[in-house]
Amino acid sequence: MVKKVKLVGHPCKIFKKTALIMNMFTSDLEVARFEGAAVRTVSGIPGQVKKVAKDEIGNQPTKKGGAPREGIARCTFEDRILMSDIVFLRAWTQVEAPCFYNPLTTALQPRNKTWQGMKTMAELRREHNLPIPVNKDSLYKVINL
Questions:
Q1: Sign of the dihedral through C-alpha 39, 40, 46, 52
Q2: Phi, psi (degrees; rounded to nearest 5) at 6
Q3: H or E element: which one contains 143?
């Protein structure tokens, strides 16, 4: 089963038809995974993710022991984009559906070995001669005008 994901980013540096997009990906590995993916601006300009943009902006650690900023992607567009443009990438991700049933593995037993599943509440009430519970708030009330 797949789920639609929309990744959103903003340009941090713009060249002619190329822009460096930040805040869309969290790591360089994630950028590499989406290389070649189609991106689009809110104004409708289509583009494509090209590669990780670590060296193009001189991305060096700011303090001793710090790490350079990760997740910046170089994207090319069909036209020049603005700094105020929002860039988004539509993608589909695989999701695991939770199992809401218990597989019945004994269904192929011979007829003399019958298997009975769990009883319903109605069956249990019938066996023990219990009345159906009545919620007083759910009963109709007479309105006198």
A1: negative
A2: -120, 110
A3: none
Average pLDDT over every residue of 7-26: 92
Beta-carbon-side half-sphere exposure of residue 97 (alpha carbons within 13 Å): 6
Q: pTM of this prediction?
A: 0.59
Residue 53 inside a domain? The answer is yes
Cα separation values, 43 from 9, 22, 36, 84, 99, Å: 14, 18, 21, 10, 41
pLDDT tens by residue, 32-88? 999 999 999 999 999 999 999 876 665 565 666 555 678 899 999 999 999 999 999
φ, ψ of residue 20 in degrees (nearest 5)? -100, 120
Which two three-digit tokens encode residue 84? Answer: 């105020």
| Structural domain span for residue 50 | 2-94
Residue 42 falls inside a structural domain:
yes
| Residue 31: CATH number of its domain | 2.40.10.190
**Residue of 29, 50, 40 whose CA lies nearest to 91:** 40
DSSP 43: T
| pLDDT at residue 102, rounded to an integer | 72
